Amino acid sequence: MNPPVALTIAGTDSGGAAGTAADLATFAALGVHGACVITAVTAQDTTGVSDIHPVPHSAIEAQLDAVLDDLPVAAIKTGMLGTVAAVEAIAQRVVKLSVAHGSLSASQPPVVVDPVLVATSGAVLGGEDVRRAYVDHLLPVATVVTPNLDEARALAGHDGSPEELATQLAGLGPAVVVTGGDPAATGECTDWLAEPGQPPIPLRHPAVPTSNDHGTGCTYSSALAAHLAHGAPLREAAEHAAAYVARQLATSRHWTLGRGRGPIAH
Ligand code: PLP
């Protein structure tokens, strides 16, 4: 029997921790065939990002055409998009897909948006103009958005609590999971899931203290997309994705790869 297909639209990480390296490994581990549209090539290792080379717009469009014309994509995940043009192009493609699926009355693949703006190392992967493009164009057409607390604050424009941020961002249209809240206080992490028009729900899972966490956000959003591709409902997919990340972090917890912030296990 065929596996479900998930598509990642994201940047590369030459160090193999984040970006498409994490996405494709996570899809494979969760029984999903991964397709891959590259938006930017980054030069980076465990110590940081030393170069970012955006892929030309026409090449992003050509990759999208190739994949979407051929493969039965059951879920889409976006990671680092890097430029306003890329964010707008992906948003337009999502709208086009929903029109096409509407007229064919087939179900539209869910779109998981990981709003990558800043790397765990602090490198800026999208500036203010990119942040605005997410808010204005991509978030309103996404199925679910998965910011960490810093990204949620940047998108919302203030330092509210995770549940306030999740509720506010869900007001733009998508479901929202604000990930990774408050591990120090309780030994637990709390993700906040907000679906439009509903009160936010805390999703608790064990915290895994480690500095080998590069790629955690990518792994979470890919695991969420993989479970949605298998047909899981959103809350169940979010719980499975958090458990998967905790398991991978526990595996890489004591690794000593590189001189900087090491990778989460794939
Ligand atoms: N995508 C790319 C290409 C990256 O280089 C990074 C960070 O370096 C990310 C996404 C986000 O990484 P993380 O999952 O560690 O937040």
From TrEMBL:
| Reactions catalysed, as given in the entry | 4-amino-2-methyl-5-(phosphooxymethyl)pyrimidine + ATP = 4-amino-2-methyl-5-(diphosphooxymethyl)pyrimidine + ADP; 4-amino-5-hydroxymethyl-2-methylpyrimidine + ATP = 4-amino-2-methyl-5-(phosphooxymethyl)pyrimidine + ADP + H(+)
Q: By its UniProt entry, which CDD domains does this protein fall under?
A: HMPP_kinase (cd01169)
| A Pfam family | Phos_pyr_kin
Give the UniProt record's GO annotations in the biological process aspect: thiamine biosynthetic process; thiamine diphosphate biosynthetic process
Q: Does the keyword Hydrolase apply?
A: no
Q: Which UniProt keywords apply?
A: Kinase, Thiamine biosynthesis, Transferase
**Any GO MF annotation of the entry:** phosphomethylpyrimidine kinase activity
User: Where does the Pyridoxamine kinase/Phosphomethylpyrimidine kinase domain start and stop, copy by copy?
Assistant: 13-264
SUPFAM superfamilies linked to this entry = Ribokinase-like
Enumerate the InterPro entries for this protein.
HMP/HMP-P_kinase_dom, PM/HMP-P_kinase-1, Ribokinase-like
Q: What metabolic or biological pathway is this protein involved in? A: Cofactor biosynthesis; thiamine diphosphate biosynthesis; 4-amino-2-methyl-5-diphosphomethylpyrimidine from 5-amino-1-(5-phospho-D-ribosyl)imidazole: step 3/3
- Does the record bear Transferase in its keywords? yes
> What GO CC terms are in its UniProt record?
cytosol
Q: What does this protein do?
A: Catalyzes the phosphorylation of hydroxymethylpyrimidine phosphate (HMP-P) to HMP-PP, and of HMP to HMP-P.
Which protein is depicted?
Bifunctional hydroxymethylpyrimidine kinase/phosphomethylpyrimidine kinase
Query: What species is given as this protein's source?
Result: Nocardioides luteus
